[in-house]
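queue> holo job accepted (guanosine-5',3'-tetraphosphate)
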Amino acid sequence: MHFQWYPGHMTKARRQMQEDIKLIDLVIELVDARIPLSSRNPDIDQLGKQKARLILMNKADLANEEQTRQWTEFFQNQGYFVVKLDARTKAGMKKVNDVIMEACREKIERDRKRGIKNRPVRAMVVGIPNVGKSTFINTYAGKACAKTGNKPGVTKGKQWIKLNKNVELLDTPGILWPKFEDQQVGLYLALIGSIKDEILNIDELSLKLIQILKENYSGILTERYSAAEEGEAPEILRQIAENRNCVKKGNELDYSKAAALVLDEFRSGRLGKITLEFPGEQR
Ligand code: G4P
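queue> job finished
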């Protein structure tokens, strides 16, 4: 399956991010907990070097808990601070605050030694489209998001959201482009619904999903669709179409309807908490 790659305004956005990053102490990078590597762009490591780094494993409500734990360890071993999150709820935000302070402890200590007291930590949110950046900013900032801009020392026009006395957040997130040129990345992004379905072959995509589920989440297809998992993916899809009564005019099985159904149930979490990418299988 081939995915098109549209560079669009990439260069401009990258240059903007380079400028923004100069103003901050901490990069808050959101990834999708179901595909923690494929939903990153490693360029951020270059752009954000010298800065404190926090990875938020977002949409953790949709991901396998054991895999999220392993990915957390994986990133922590590389020196990132990590918090798993469902950005739609307030529940994880206290933890995010605590970890931000921990990640910026050195900076705070440095300020203190120089006699600078109470200078808030400045952060910006980055991530590929659809990982939940706006949702996170809205939930995290809540109603209390007093905007502060054009203060001395702040580049004109920059808007900062004062989250509390310790943290200020740049109000516009930095958008990173996924590594579309990697076909596996394209596949994973398509599976989680980050690429418009209109440009995809839904039947083929659902067969890939069925294959991944069959190999890594044994029993799940039998449980939800009463499909025997011994067969090849097309046979499993046929059984799903049959058991879910996906039929066209003339009583013919409607594979595309079954394919869309499986994808939809996966994306919405109805199939269960499913991580597609595993720390051991790095490319
Ligand atoms: P972006 O700024 O990074 O592009 O992402 P955005 O916040 O717009 O979020 C993209 C979609 O992901 C939204 O759904 C949002 O509700 C959902 N989302 C964000 N965080 C989480 C999370 O932790 N868990 C789950 N399950 N979903 C999350 P949408 O369908 O596009 O919009 P809506 O119908 O929910 O408003």
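queue> The first strand starts at residue 26 and ends at 32.
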